[in-house]
Structure formats: structure tokens, C-alpha cells
């Protein structure tokens, strides 16, 4: 008895049963009034010019950090990506071995979440805007490098071989044969990274690294809900605007020209891209100047408090099995919630167009909202713990997965769904059978990748306490227990590397021809 | 007007499908322009016309996918039902054989056949169908009727050959048990032998109380049809018995286009 494809996408949602059964046990009910006030404030955000001014200022800093971090990660990622590509090494030096070494080296910066980078740098060089920029640029850069090298190595090499046989030197042949097919994929992916960078910059702010996030956390903790919503609505507007702009650019530049629409002028795309790059460069310079980002200041390490002798006994005494177990449990619950709820919600609201927009709105809020803020909000009514952290993390990733599912559903199984509806099938079953059948494998493959991201992200909900490695890490950080910190970061990195292997294996299995 | 479907042969005056003065607007010229058509139980009607004549639009109106801008569509004498449930019962009696078949590749043959029963099934059976083989006897029976081996039932659709897929799509239509059969150029991409086989099967299925409306490109295959309808630039050019069709009419229908 093997479940068929459409059921696979619904199976993760079964995690709802234990979660709903456990919720009454951890709720303390004291804060429902606060949650009510918070929800009511959504409709009447503060319009005080002073509040709006500070929110706009914070948003500017966050957007600036995101833009600079993103640009840095792209430069790093492209250079390192080419440097870790097998096909490049094989063409230039005849051996692909160095590519493998560089790849392995890059796994380390990638396995550590940007928040950890930020907090560690903060200890070393003190609070300055450059910290957040570097914290985003380093792990994102390593991630972009991996994607670029994977894309490069997956391209067909027949053209390259033909050019090489014709006597073209390796760099020119590589650029000519692999550049054009690589470009649209890189553009599409880097647009997506900019969205991620905006989310990360907000998140870093929540932990005090500057920008709107800091204000969001302060207003939430001082229960100033109308002021909190002024910031949230503004951030939502910016995020949706950015997503729409990137979607438009992606369709304009990265998609193959559709049949019959309009003839494209030769080179139009290239001219526009160069133009966009020329606009972007001075913009980046202006933002860096405006934010007073000083790369040189990163080299001036501040005097650390005198480090005591290492207490390795305390490190060994940490409850490792529980820390690791809770981290994994949190990841699994959050991943199952996010992966399972997105299709379930789509099914539930399928008959009503208004419901569809409601779900989209909910997902946009989930994407926008940094998980630690959700976690703090949940603490009004729930006790701290793994489940509370998982709900916060799951809600955020539900927003990301849901949007992806909707995008994929636009092109998959349209005819099958129509055929079912024409034969009298109800709207929900037609969606389940017609569309989800074809979507199941790619969607779950993306879910596996996302679960790996969530494992890394568990640190950001560490502040609700008792969530495993993340909580312990934040604790050790604030008590300057550097040997504990070292051990925790190492274990975290090992765990995420193992998770990455597992999720890669799952994705390969899901996407293999069946 | 009868409110319940009932066996259609008791009501010889109730046609399966009635199109009255149907107009569907298009970008430059109407895609359908004042088309009226009736299909009685047991009738097999062929729809001819050059590409772009509006055959697909006419079929989309006939299976309820497209609402006309003007005119009325009646299924067994009834207009489009108001309520969602009644509408689904109405749609369940209209069976369409799609040109691209629209089988669900990831599911088995049996699950695809049972998908035709989803209009009548509730959620529990619809979900069970994704777990267990349901209604094996009925599914095997429709396969056998189309000369397919019942051993195919647990094969994924993606593993079938082109001819087998055609027949499975037809078997799914049978399993739906519709009264009105619609087919949009089902023979277009088939080799001659497969095309004749499939056409004969479709004609055989369309016995009373069922009726068939089929669009095609091949004037040489009109033998089994009772009536032929000619469509050109969205307008009805002729609607007559297939035996009284003249070669000149066909040439007029396709004049100025490259097709036969």
C-alpha cells in the first residue's frame, strides 16, 4: 500500500494532530488580552509623524544593509562559485580536484547562520553597520557559490568541447559556451537572494544589529502595538513591492521569449542589464556612505574582556543529547508544519476566491515577520519550549513555501484540473488530483531543501528558551563562555552539514526520473 | 421541462444538448457567431471546419467550460444549474475526450479511471483511491471493453504507449458514464489504423441514450456519423445528414485554407 503522489503533499500536515493535542498543555492563557490588543492594533497603526519618521529611518537602514549584504554575497558567490566549479578547473588546468577542496571549505561558512556570524562579529568589533553587512554577505556568498557551481556543472558541455576543439583558449571558450545559458538562472536566483537578504537584515535588527528590526522588537516588548504595526505595514509594503519588481525583472530578463508575443530587439536585454548595473553601483556607494559602513573599522578589534582559562569540564557537562534532540525535533515539527500546511490551506480555501487572497495575505505576513518576533508574541499565551519555537519557525517558512507552491501551481496540471472540473469533480478534489499530482515531487524536494535551512535557522528562535542548541548558544554568548561557544558552533556546523547531506539525498531521490 | 435527468430515451423531444444562437466574442471577430445546434439521444454528429473556425470554442461551450456572451445552452433541456452541487451533477453527465487526453501521469491507470467517479464520490473514497485499488471489477470491465489487458490497472499512466493512453482516456470516459460525449479532434495525432479503431469505438459508445459530438479534420471518416455540421469563421455553414453531403460543400468549407 503505497500512497499516491497527491497524498504525499498532505502527509506532513498530520503533524497538526500531536501539535493541537499538546497546545492546551503549554498554553497559560494569561495573555490572550494582549494578543487581542495586538490584533486590533493592526487596523489602527500609529500615524504619529515622530513614529513614522523613526520607522522610515529604520527601514532605510535595514534596506541598505540588505542591499549591501546582497551585493557583497553576489560578488563573493560568483567568484567562489566559478572557483569551485569542476568544469572550469577541468578546462583550465585539466584536473577537477581543486574544485572539490574549495567546495568542502565553503561548506563551513555556509553551515553557520547569518545571525551567528552577526553575533560573533559583534563581540569582536563592536556595533557598527558593517557587521550586519558582513554577516549577510559571508554565509549568503558561500550559498550563492554552491548554487553557481552546481548550475555551471549541470550545463551541457557539448558547445564548450566544440569551441575547445576549434582552438579557443579556455577562459574565452568557457565564457562563450557557458555564460549565456548560466545568466538567466543566476539572475533569477540572485533576485530571490535579495528577498532573502531583506528578511535577514530585518532579523538581524531584531537582535540589535541595527535597522527596523530593533524598533520592531522594542515596540513589541514595550507593548506599543500601534507603533509596531506602523513598522510592520511599511515593511510589508516594501517586501511586496520588491517581490513584484523582481518578478517583473525575472520575467523580462530571465524567461525565454514566448511565442508570438513580440519580437525582441537583439541586445535589448543585455543593454538593460548593463544599465541596471550602472545604476546599482553608484546606489551601492551612496548607501554605504549614508550608512557609514567602514570596512576598515572591521579590522580594529575591540579589547575583549579578559578570557578566563578554558573550562572544558563545563562544556562536557552540557546536556548534549537533549540539546541536539530538541534542535532536531524543533526542525522536524517546523518543517512538517510549513510543508504540510501550505497545500492544506490552499485546498481548504479553493472554492472561495476571497479565501485565496486571505491565505496569500497570511503568507506574506509570515514571510515578512522575523520568527523571533512571532516567538515573542507566542510567549504571551504559550510557555517557552520546543513547540513554541517550532510554531514561530513554521509560520515564517509557511509563508515562503506557500508562495513557491502558488507559483508552481500556476503552470502545473492546469489541463488536468480543468478536465476534472468539466467532469463534475468538486473544486477541492480537482485541485488535489489535477494539480497536486504533478507538483508533489518538486514541491517536496524544495521542502527538503527548506528543512535544511530551518535546521540552520533554529538558532533565531533560541531566545524563547529551551529550544536546544540555539538557546544554549545565546546563553553562552551572553556569559562569554568562549569554550562553550566554540563547541556549540562546531556541533551546530556538523549538524547542519549532516542535514545538508540528508536533504540533498532526499531531493535527488524525489527528482530522479521515476 | 423535466427536472430530473431520467433515462433520456423516454423523452424523445428532450435533446441532450441544445445551443441557441450562441455568440462568443473574440479579439477581432466573434469566435462563434449565432450558432444553433441540437443533439438528440443516439445521434452521432461530426463537426468539420478549417483551423480557427471555432470548433474548439463550440466544444468548450458545449461542455460548460466557456459561458457564451450571448445565447443559451441547455443540457437535457435545462440551463446551467445555479447551485454548486447541482452544477456538478450536470457536469458529470457531460463527458469530454480531450485532445491532449489530460490523464494524470503520476497516478496508476486504476486511479485515473476512478478519477472519473470523483463527482459522485465523497472525500473518504477519493482519499482511499489514492491508497488502495478501489472498484477493481468495474475498472477491469471498462478496460476489457476497450481491448486492454486488466493487468495494466496498477501501471502508472506514464509507462503506457501512445495507443494505450488513448484507450485509457476513453475508458475513463466510459467510467464516468456520461450521456453527452464530446471529443475535440481526438484523431489528430494518431496513425491511420489507430484513428479508425478509436473512431469506431467512439461511434459504438454513442448508442442511445448517449449522443456524440466530435470535431475532426478528416472528411474521409464521416461514414459512421448521422449528421455533419460545418463551421467556418464562427458561423454554421451547413448542418445536414452525412449521406447527403456534397463534395462541393466540403470544398466550400475549406476554400482558402490549406487543409483538405
List keywords for this structure.
heterodimer; A: 514 residues; mainly alpha; MetI-like fold; 2 domains; 22 helices; B: 260 residues; alpha/beta; Rossmann fold; three-stranded antiparallel beta sheet; 8 helices; 9 strands; globular; disordered N terminus
Can you put this structure into words, describing what you see?
By secondary structure, chain A is mainly α. Chain A has helices at residues 5-10, 16-26, 32-41, 49-83, 86-93, 97-111, 114-125, 129-154, 158-165, 170-206, 212-221, 225-254, 268-291, 312-317, 320-349, 353-368, 371-378, 386-409, 414-422, 427-457, 469-478, 482-511. Chain A is globular and about 75 Å long. Residues 256-263 of chain A have low confidence and may be disordered. With 260 residues, chain B is an alpha/beta fold. Chain B folds into two domains: 14-93 and 178-260, P-loop containing nucleotide triphosphate hydrolases (Rossmann fold), CATH 3.40.50.300; 106-177, no CATH class. In chain B, α5 (136-145) packs across α6.
Question: What's this, in brief?
Answer:
Chain A is mainly alpha-helical and 514 residues long.
How confident is the prediction overall: mean pLDDT of chain B? 85
- Rg calculated over all Cα atoms of chain B: 19 Å
Oligomer: heterodimer
Strand content of chain B: 15-25%
Query: Element order, helices and strands of chain A?
Result: HHHHHHHHHHHHHHHHHHHHHH
- Note the overall shape of chain B: globular
Largest sheet of chain B: 6 strands, mixed
Which structural class do you get from the secondary structure elements of chain B? alpha/beta
CATH class of the largest domain in chain A: Mainly Alpha
Record field, number of beta strands of chain A: 0
Using only CA atoms, what is the Rg of chain A? 24 Å
Query: What is the CATH homology-level superfamily of the largest domain in chain B?
Result: P-loop containing nucleotide triphosphate hydrolases
Number of domains of chain A: 2
Please state the average pLDDT score of chain A: 83
Lateral strand order in the biggest sheet of chain B: 5-6-7-3-8-9
Helix content of chain A: over 70%
Determine the CATH topology of the largest domain in chain B.
Answer: Rossmann fold
CATH architecture heading of the largest domain in chain A: Orthogonal Bundle
Number of helices of chain B: 8
Any guess at the CATH architecture of the largest domain in chain B? 3-Layer(aba) Sandwich
CATH superfamily heading of the largest domain in chain A: MetI-like
Amino acid at each position: 500500500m503505497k500512497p499516491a503522489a497527491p497524498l504525499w503533499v498532505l502527509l506532513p500536515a498530520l503533524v497538526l494532530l500531536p501539535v493541537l493535542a499538546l497546545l492546551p498543555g503549554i498554553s497559560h492563557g494569561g495573555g490572550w488580552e494582549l494578543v487581542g490588543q495586538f490584533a486590533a492594533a493592526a487596523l489602527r497603526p500609529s500615524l504619529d509623524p515622530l513614529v513614522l519618521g523613526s520607522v522610515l529611518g529604520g527601514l532605510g537602514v535595514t534596506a541598505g544593509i540588505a542591499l549591501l549584504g546582497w551585493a557583497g554575497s553576489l560578488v563573493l558567490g560568483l567568484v567562489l562559485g566559478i572557483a569551485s566549479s569542476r568544469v572550469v578547473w577541468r578546462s583550465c588546468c585539466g584536473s577537477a580536484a581543486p574544485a572539490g577542496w574549495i567546495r568542502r571549505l565553503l561548506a563551513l561558512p555556509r553551515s553557520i547562520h547569518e545571525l551567528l556570524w552577526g553575533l560573533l562579529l559583534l563581540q569582536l568589533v563592536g556595533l557598527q553597520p558593517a557587521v550586519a553587512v558582513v554577516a549577510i554577505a559571508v554565509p549568503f556568498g558561500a550559498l550563492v557559490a554552491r548554487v553557481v557551481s552546481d548550475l555551471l556543472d549541470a550545463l551541457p558541455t557539448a558547445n564548450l568541447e566544440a569551441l575547445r576543439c576549434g582552438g579557443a583558449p579556455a577562459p574565452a571558450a568557457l565564457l562563450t559556451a557557458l555564460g549565456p545559458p548560466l545568466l538567466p538562472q543566476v539572475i533569477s536566483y540572485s533576485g530571490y537572494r535579495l528577498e532573502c537578504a531583506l528578511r535577514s537584515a530585518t532579523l538581524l535588527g531584531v537582535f540589535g544589529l541595527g535597522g527596523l528590526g530593533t524598533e520592531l522588537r522594542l515596540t513589541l516588548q514595550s507593548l506599543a502595538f500601534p507603533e509596531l504595526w506602523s513598522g510592520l505595514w511599511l515593511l510589508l509594503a516594501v517586501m511586496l513591492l520588491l517581490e513584484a519588481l523582481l518578478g517583473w525583472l525575472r520575467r523580462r530578463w530571465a524567461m525565454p521569449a514566448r511565442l508570438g508575443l513580440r519580437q525582441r530587439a537583439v541586445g535589448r536585454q543585455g543593454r538593460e542589464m548593463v544599465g541596471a548595473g550602472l545604476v546599482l553601483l553608484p546606489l551601492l556607494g551612496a548607501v554605504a556612505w549614508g550608512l557609514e559602513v567602514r570596512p576598515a573599522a572591521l579590522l580594529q578589534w575591540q579589547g575583549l574582556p579578559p578570557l578566563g582559562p578554558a573550562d572544558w569540564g563545563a562544556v562536557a557537562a552540557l546536556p548534549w543529547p537533549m540539546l541536539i534532540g530538541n534542535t532536531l525535533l524543533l526542525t522536524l515539527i517546523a518543517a512538517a508544519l510549513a510543508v504540510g500546511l501550505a497545500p492544506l490551506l490552499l485546498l481548504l480555501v479553493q472554492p472561495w476566491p476571497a479565501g485565496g487572497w486571505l491565505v496569500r495575505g497570511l503568507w506574506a505576513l509570515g514571510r515578512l515577520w522575523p520568527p523571533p518576533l512571532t516567538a515573542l508574541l507566542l510567549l504571551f499565551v504559550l510557555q517557552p519550549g520546543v513547540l513554541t519555537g517550532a510554531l514561530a519557525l513554521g509560520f515564517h517558512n509557511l509563508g515562503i513555501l506557500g508562495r513557491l507552491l502558488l507559483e508552481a501551481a500556476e503552470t502545473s496540471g492546469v489541463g488536468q484540473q480543468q478536465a476534472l472540473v468539466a467532469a463534475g469533480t468538486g473544486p477541492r478534489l480537482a485541485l488535489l488530483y489535477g494539480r497536486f499530482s504533478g507538483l508533489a515531487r518538486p514541491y517536496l524536494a524544495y521542502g527538503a531543501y527548506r528543512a535544511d535551512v530551518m535546521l540552520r535557522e533554529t538558532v533565531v528562535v533560541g531566545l524563547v528558551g529551551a529550544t536546544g542548541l540555539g538557546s544554549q548558544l545565546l546563553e553562552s554568548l551572553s556569559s562569554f563562555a568562549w569554550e562553550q561557544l566554540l563547541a556549540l558552533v562546531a556541533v551546530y556546523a556538523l549538524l547542519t552539514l549532516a542535514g545538508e547531506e540528508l536533504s540533498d539525498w532526499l531531493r535527488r531521490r524525489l527528482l530522479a526520473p521515476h | 421541462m423535466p427536472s430530473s435527468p431520467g433515462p433520456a430515451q423516454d423523452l424523445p423531444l428532450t435533446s441532450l444538448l441544445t445551443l441557441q444562437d450562441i455568440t462568443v466574442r473574440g479579439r477581432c471577430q466573434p469566435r462563434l457567431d449565432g450558432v444553433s445546434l441540437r443533439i438528440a439521444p443516439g445521434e452521432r454528429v461530426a463537426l468539420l471546419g478549417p483551423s480557427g473556425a471555432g470548433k474548439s470554442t463550440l466544444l468548450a461551450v458545449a461542455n460548460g467550460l466557456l459561458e457564451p456572451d450571448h445565447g443559451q445552452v441547455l443540457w437535457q433541456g435545462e440551463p446551467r444549474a445555479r447551485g454548486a452541487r447541482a452544477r456538478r451533477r450536470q457536469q458529470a453527465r457531460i463527458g469530454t475526450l480531450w485532445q491532449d487526453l489530460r490523464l494524470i501521469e503520476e497516478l496508476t491507470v486504476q486511479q485515473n479511471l476512478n478519477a472519473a467517479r470523483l463527482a459522485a464520490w465523497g472525500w473518504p473514497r477519493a482519499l482511499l483511491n489514492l491508497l488502495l485499488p478501489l472498484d477493481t471489477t468495474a475498472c477491469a470491465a471498462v478496460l476489457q471493453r476497450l481491448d486492454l489487458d486488466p493487468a495494466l490497472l496498477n501501471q502508472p499512466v506514464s509507462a503506457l504507449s501512445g495507443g494505450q493512453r488513448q484507450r485509457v482516456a476513453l475508458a475513463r470516459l466510459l467510467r464516468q458514464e456520461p450521456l453527452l460525449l464530446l471529443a475535440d479532434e481526438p484523431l489528430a495525432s494518431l496513425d491511420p489504423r489507430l484513428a479508425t479503431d478509436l473512431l469506431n469505438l467512439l461511434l459504438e459508445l454513442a448508442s442511445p441514450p448517449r449522443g456524440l459530438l466530435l470535431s475532426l479534420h478528416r472528411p474521409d471518416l464521416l461514414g459512421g456519423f448521422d449528421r455533419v455540421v460545418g463551421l467556418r469563421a464562427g458561423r454554421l455553414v451547413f448542418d445536414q445528414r452525412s449521406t447527403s453531403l456534397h463534395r462541393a460543400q466540403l470544398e466550400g468549407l475549406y476554400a482558402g485554407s490549406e487543409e483538405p
